[in-house]
Amino acid sequence: MGANQLNRSLGIRMVIVVVIGNIIGSGVYKKVAPMAAELHSSGWVLICWMLGGIITLFGALSNAEVAGLLADTGGEYAYYKKIYNKFFAFIFGWSLFAVIQTAGISSLAYVFAQSFNSIFPFPPLLSMPDFNIGGIFYPFADFNVKLTAIILIILLTLVNARGIKTGTWVSSAILILVFGGIFLIIGAGLSTGHSNISQAFDMKTANNAPVTFSAVFTAMLAAFWGYQGWASVGYVGGEIKDAKRNIPKGITIGVFIIIGLYMLVNATYLSLLSIPALEQIYKGGNQIAAIEAVRTFWGQNGALFISVLILVTTLGCTNATILSSSRTYFAMAREELFFPSVARLNNAKAPANSLLYQCVWACLLILSGTFDQLTDMIIFAVFIYYGATTLGVFILRKKMPDTPRPYKVWGYPAVPAIVILFCAALFINTIFARPREAAIGVVLMLTGVPMYFWFKKNKKQQEAFEQE
């Protein structure tokens, strides 16, 4: 094996761990509150979680066909080169670096830091909450929380620089604790006298106000943060045994498990907290819905328990996201479409320089915004590419009709068509419902255009130099 080649060391069990580890993070604890504030109905909140799960599953099934055909390190970056062209593939990879994955790491680390601070409060640092850039970015607001998040990212980057097996075993251990904790909350929460399960399915809204199409889509924007991350397993395709079979299987199993878990745990929250209470939590800004739900039946000890569980969960998801995301930039750098040093592996066969670049940018993004601002920006950006990958199912069936496919998407052509239409609708709705987040996301993605031509120019200069 070459010195600059990744090890194929992950089997199907670890593929499922990577899928679930990249999904289950902060959304399962936080996003029920903004959804309640948008819909004013617990029944509609559950419907949006289910719709989000179904669309995610449809997208995962479509992605699985493409992954089964083209699996390689870099995930969609590798797929898009064959479906579209190198330019589009680069813009995707740059979008991961500029906003999608790095902002995901930042958001998860931010929630970890919030929970850590609720258990072990830090004294205020750099108390300049009103200092801002353009009235949008407040880098020193809650700086003690942000500093904790930055330290977490640095530490987990160092862990993953020790190799992929170290990173995945950390994720496995954390997931066991997370599932145990969440099922304990579901069991205890639904069996307590404080629970009113019929309340969770109540379709009535405050003042009988109608639930609008736009409100459903905006609420689903929050739900999709909870489901975000399943495609990340494709980024480590070059380190998976029998990747063309194990990636589709791992994605499908992982997403099914998450949908079932999310429906149960959100029904538990909604049986314990009324819609007005959830709306108040959302307005409070620094509260987490899951903590308040558990506090209703376990008091302060329960709040401490779930704060620790959130710590463990977001630790695991941050770790899994750091592990998988860095592989795309490594794949780009090998083709001289990223910073050259990123193409090198360390002695542990880990892309250490890719991890370093990712770490620095993710830390800067933490200083840029709040949790909800970052997550809305991510979902807006990521659904552009979910739609592009799903469209690839149709394109590849025409381009490569006779190529063996280990997996074919169930319900073709209806299932991938539904995903594409949904992605387009969510994209348009976000522009109107969250214009600031949409604009920031687009600007960050479009910085990839001049970067592409800069890298291409450097590549030509290097080739000319070598020929002299």
UniProtKB/TrEMBL annotation:
GO terms for molecular function: L-amino acid transmembrane transporter activity. It comes from the Bacteria. It is found in: Membrane. GO terms for cellular component: membrane. Gene3D superfamilies: Amino acid/polyamine transporter I. The chain crosses the membrane at residues 12-29, 41-61, 87-113, 133-158, 170-191, 211-230, 251-272, 303-324, 354-371, 377-397, 409-432, 438-455. Keywords: Membrane, Transmembrane, Transmembrane helix. Signal peptide: none annotated. Pfam families: AA_permease_2. The keyword Transmembrane helix applies. It is a multi-pass membrane protein. This is Amino acid transporter.
